[in-house]
Amino acid sequence: MNMARITASVYTSHVPAIGAAIDLGKTAEPYWVPLFKGYEPSKQWMKDNTPDVIFLVYNDHATAFSLEMIPTFAIGTAAEFTPADEGYGPRPVPKVIGHPELASHIAQSVIQDDFDLTIVNRMDVDHGLTVPLSLLCGQPQAWPCPVIPFAVNVVQYPVPSGRRCFMLGQAIRRAIESYDAPLKVQIWGTGGMSHQLQGPRAGLINADWDNRFLDRLIAEPEALSKVPHIEYVREAGSEGIELVMWLIARGAMSDVAGSGKPPKVAHRFFHVPASNTAVGHLILENA
Ligand code: DHB
Ligand code: FE
Q: Does the predicted TM-score (pTM) go above 0.90?
């Protein structure tokens, strides 16, 4: 077995205020204690299960991209990615080291497998990517492994369907598992859970819907992938649509490819509130 393989998938919200709480030393404040407690087992799990590469599915928030250019799916093929200045200066976190060779292989494979990707050779990465890394890895001098950023447009309609995201995850799995090096790869799906940042419904949280989403993501991802956009937006708020990205990571798990073995739930956590959102988190290990 000399080929790369996907060992686990990780799912987490990316709330920017969480990054600020970490960077400004506020994690021990009563408001934040329950949230960070929920990620203690995850940090230990990351130490015990450090992969060789993380394939990190996230969304850019009009930071690297803008209305001038809107790629639906963009893969970062650069050697490194700088934390972005989102208006308050860049987060004081390590730069992200990429894996150009694996990223190029995935681009080649997935594009030949009929998914159109945008190749990105220079890109700053915003809270969508750095907050999940901080939650799972803490505050290290360097991130524990290379990261391939994979940006999905969930900001400007039309955005991709859950179904397409789920199928793309399956193509990414085929790509990774045809890479001729014995790399352990994790795939992360980030964003969500329910939240709406603007308009008359700003502040919307739907904990019942969120928990049902987590249940179904674990047990019936194929059926979950058929949920239409309108249900995400109605039930989980306009920014709840970020959750379609979780279906990319879930589609890459081995049970979807027919292994017959459901993934092991290594950790599950849900908390309300963090800033304007519900926070959800799952770690699934391939059986
Ligand atoms: C908030 C949440 C997000 O997912 C985001 O991208 C920006 C802001 C919030 O809760 O404030
Ligand atoms: Fe967001």
A: yes
